[in-house]
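Researcher: Re-running this chain for the archive, since the previous output was lost when a drive failed. Same request as before.
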Amino acid sequence: MEKKGFTPLEIKIPDKESGRFPERHGKTDVRQQYRSFLTGFTLIELLVVIAVIALLLAILMPALNKARELGQGAACKGNLKSYTLAVQMYAQDNDDRFCDPDFCYFSQSERYPVESGVGGSNHLHLRWCNDDLYLQSHPEYGGSLYHYMKDARSFICPTYFRLTIRGSQDQFYMADGDTITNYKPWYNYTMNAYLGPIDTPRGLPLKGVRVEKLTQVKRPGETFSFTEESALVDTRYNASGLNDTFMIPGDRSMAQGWLSSVGGSPWLVKPGPEGVGQFWDVIAGFHHAPSGNRLGGKGHCALLDGHVAAHTRAETFPLSWPR
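Model: Regenerated structure tokens:
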């Protein structure tokens, strides 16, 4: 006696070698079923999928960019922590004195042989991006402080490196950057020019501003030894981008004039139209910067008490002023 129920439909899979489709099975065309199974998305379905992906990217990209900036900022702070230790060790070995900001990286200001043809008379202002002088590869060029920080992971902020892949807005780079054979930005942390020896060509003009010893600094926790400079220039605030080894808001007469105009408080001396006017150098502003203004954020500073913190360009003078 035959069992009642559905008769199973046997579906034959096409032979891979011959490519032949199975024969008809009753009233069902298995070839038609197979072709239906392989049918792709409709145009509407594809557009919906693309729209969903675009929406997800629009939601995720700001978060991913934020995470990347936080990671780069953490790396930058780690780099500058090495500088705080180097400054302290140098002071301990040198009667509490600071090194000369002109020679913190390099052993000489005169042109090295590898700088032949670079920058005309402005070779010093292009060393930050001359890979032939990269100290990790060429320690023989290292200056007084380099030997205390030669084990540092990096001398450059990852964000700064990304910003300067294609060059700088500094006037010296704009004039002579094309003379560099091996362009590669490798440092952007510069030393406070108001710290260091006085009996030097650059120190004498800063007499009355510069201090020679760590113990002479009035507010170590609010005075940086090194900070970040930027390659970006807004001439309302700063005349230059990074172009040497030191950060200097202005010379002695400028500093004294600024202080006199605001009643003597360094915290009231600010660059720009809302302040005392143009500085020579300012703290970088590419960390946590508002959209469209890569100078309006913050830059990291290595303070003399050993900690690293982010500050705005408006704080450049009080954080560099050691008196």
